[in-house]
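To: structure desk
From: M.T.
Subject: fold request, one chain
Message: Could you run this one when you get a chance? Sequence is below, nothing fancy, just the single chain.
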Amino acid sequence: MPFGHAVVIMVITLALSRAPDSVEGAEFARQVLQALAVHNAAFIRAGLVPPLYRSKVRYRQEKTESFQDALCVYRQGWGDCSNLAAWRAGELLLSGELAAIHVRWREYDDGQRGYHVLVRRADGVIEDPSRLLGM
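Reply: Done. Structure tokens follow.
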């Protein structure tokens, strides 16, 4: 496990709790998740996790937002949109594709606000790992 792993996750979670339903919070999430994608590429390169779509990991919404790396998600067997997108983006980055985290800000029918995390492929196509894995 990389040095400072748990501390980084705690700092990210605390920072998100300050503005989870704002456009600024969504931009902060995008930046952090892009860094997490690079971090995930190291787990993939080391063979500690398989390709996302062959991993048997499924989508599940978290009760409280936290960003988990691919190894944590693989071990628990599920992840939410942020975790799955960061894993997939890391996989694509490792293959040489300039993939990026894409955050879509949303206002829901019930008045809630939040964001959904996706992957923007190098050709501009938006990929939604959560939908592909059971959302």
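Reply (cont.): The chain has one domain: 5-132. Let me know if you need anything else for the meeting.
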